[in-house]
């Protein structure tokens, strides 16, 4: 696959600048999505250069439930972040005022990494760390107001089991949110995205982490994940209602949401 020269693409200067910015945001999503202990060292480095301004969309989606703000104020709001061992989402939600957060991850090393990161940021209370499998959560039914999973569901063996467990542990009226790589709708963006993900990412992984195979898996797992409408249908079949999705960066990533009613 050949690289794209933006100067040769027929578009205005403003459109070219926006296109370049979107590709930069795609790189940020890739770096945020690098999960697993084999990539932990690489993630520790790239987090210093990744801007998560777009993550404000994610945080606001968490707080959009009409019951969230008052529950945050009185300290009763509870959020479960699955596959969140790095602590990225939990730390940002904590800073936005969500008082009771539980991180559940299948990888103990990642949990420890997230705990250390939170401590380094001065967060010593308000976040619990639980070792567990998203397909068989170690929590009672109807336990949480909000369930989040960011860049984790594409790596599970059975997506339907994860969604079923998410539905089970949410309280009635609870909100489900999933941030994940998705399908790009613009052909020109798709071409550039494919070049970046399949040609550059494995090479970067080889240099930074000495593990190009893991970065190749990252690209391939994104390609295999269901598109926006297919995943939306899976949410509906799991029992969620008022389901929807919001594309980020032309569909490079998407936020899917729903409610347990």
Question: What does this protein look like?
Answer:
With 261 residues, the protein is an alpha/beta fold. It contains 10 helices and 7 strands. The protein has a 7-stranded mixed β-sheet, sandwiched between helices. Strand 4, helix 7 and strand 5 form a beta-alpha-beta unit. The protein is globular, with a radius of gyration of 18 Å. The N and C termini lie far apart (47 Å).
Describe the structure using short key phrases.
46% helix, disordered N terminus, 7 strands, alpha/beta, Rossmann fold, 7-stranded mixed β-sheet, 261 residues
Q: Work out the number of β strands.
A: 7
Q: Low-confidence stretches at least 5 residues in length (pLDDT < 50)?
A: 1-11, 19-54
* Biggest β-sheet strands, sense, barrel: 7 strands, mixed
Overall, the morphology is globular
CATH level 3 topology: Rossmann fold
Query: What's the alpha carbon Rg, rounded to whole Å?
Result: 18 Å
* Oligomeric state of the chains present here: single chain
Across the major sheet, the strand order is 3-2-1-4-5-7-6
Number of helices: 10
Q: What is the total number of structural domains?
A: 1
CATH superfamily: Vaccinia Virus protein VP39
Mean pLDDT: 74
Report the portion of residues in β strands: 15-25%
Please provide the ordered H/E string of secondary-structure elements.
HHHHEHEHEEHEHHHEE
Q: From the 3D coordinates, which CATH architecture would you assign?
A: 3-Layer(aba) Sandwich
CATH class reads Alpha Beta
Helix content range of the residues, please? 40-55%
The end-to-end span amounts to 47 Å
Overall SS class: alpha/beta
